[in-house]
């Protein structure tokens, strides 16, 4: 039956997913082996994944904790790869070193970045300056070699976290030394790529190292680490010829390619534009350094200070032009004539982006009594430099001609939190407050030489701030066999100091200020856990959450020549997203086998999304607007097995079915009842690990997502550039512990060289060689 329900073309996956549904029943004595502490056991089995480390965030609803056991079977080019087999979860990673890796939970679109709260050691690295692929979390401040565990919670069921947890929460915990230690890892990367007229092998490498110290009889510890990463990613876009008007002929050329898939996806019988070039490969260079200082006093006082620096350079100066003139010379732009007609070739520009960013945070925790404790943390993420240089054309790029500069700064965010907790007779209480401030300032300039900012001329500016103040409280009450957790969160949000400027009539700069906005939200939470048996837990979680607009969604307007706002360019009354959520979880621990089933439901009023539809003035625009109601529900099945039939054979496998639709959208009624874009009906992930011998581990991984809609109206469905396609990837890895300190590994992702797309292409077959040393 499962096979027949899969999307077309997915039948071969049934065999790979079968372990989820064919695991045998447990032996009759399983319950008798359970721990006497049934409540502790229930908490343990609530979390999917590793079992030997406590989760670092509140496990309400489906919760996943990943550690070394899972990491051993993953080819991790970057830190976000360590989550690639997590249930009903994905990261929009297009190539190694991609800085636009937006995480997605369940029915979250791959550009809804503001619906995920991501932290490193409890410090916020989510970029809530906007809500799109350009505002992904700052994964680059962490290297894969320094991660102790990944903790993932699905949904906004804990009162402690903001409404940005509407999709879910991710916390990355880095290693804290318990003795003198050191590590070093080197990697070699390669991707064979063949698409349209591009046939290349792209290569990269990384080197990561660090050391840690801890006082033998003292409270202090220190960890210092760094990573250098260099990679060329495959082209992200392909350029099509535009039909030219007029009878004048162009340069005779050959080499243009027609993609039949684009013609079919657009409309049967409609010819696609010939493709004449691929965007330049992204030459990525990243440098990361981190200092972590810890204090663990005998009095119970715990402190931590973290400073992380990340440098990122993206150079794209080699567009792959397919056209050749009669002399065999490359043609990258201009008026051209092919056997199919006369066209204009344009778009193959050159670019270079340089960013320097800094995370700094401090956290303190202290006991107030035998039953009470307090915590506080304060952090900031500073975008010290963000310069994006782009040529005006291919010829300008080649000849150091005219271009533009997008310069961001001062841009940063600040977050702070305090918490008090007390274990009283019959109830555990916790309460706290939090605050954040997000600030952006982006200026665009025109340049005479696109590579340099000398003589830059002002073109436009966008700036603004948002701040959020919150108080929250939770009470956890054990009522054997049920434990209730009641919580509530109140947030006060404000958007202010926003404005936009441009060159107006007569060449003079003009600007306008946005009105200050303010809103509040009360968000109740309820979770009930029922310890049906010592190794069986049923949990029901209910919540309301509010996600306020970001700077980028609010300040999106444009100005008329006289400096007044174009009333159709933005929505001055953009409303916050408000969700109602439910999650039912049943987990059963059978000793070597653990099964988890999860059913979820979410209804969101005023979903903020960029689409083409009627604005507040009844004019059709393509901008951020509110969708009246969206809804999603689904089922997730998760299997974890250890020593499955053979000692050393472990399996983590999961399947999810998602129904996510637009219920009501007055701005674009044609979207109503349609599956929300980029949300597949099916997701399947699995990782099978087998220890062939004590030093050798082999692993096979699988990732599958059925083909979703590309647009809000369900009209764009394709399997080529510009569409979101089905994804199927088989991965493999071999780990060899040469000695207690030296490890070698080799791996390949996407063994079958499946060509998948998320508008841009996903990687084709990719190889990884790695050597790691640890003291």
From TrEMBL:
It comes from the Bacteria. Keywords: Cell outer membrane, Ion transport, Membrane, Receptor, Signal, TonB box, Transmembrane, Transmembrane beta strand, Transport. It is found in: Cell outer membrane. Its main location: membrane. It is a multi-pass membrane protein. It holds the Pfam family Plug. Residues 66-169 form the TonB-dependent receptor plug domain. PANTHER family: COLICIN I RECEPTOR-RELATED, TONB-DEPENDENT OUTER MEMBRANE RECEPTOR. This is TonB-dependent receptor.
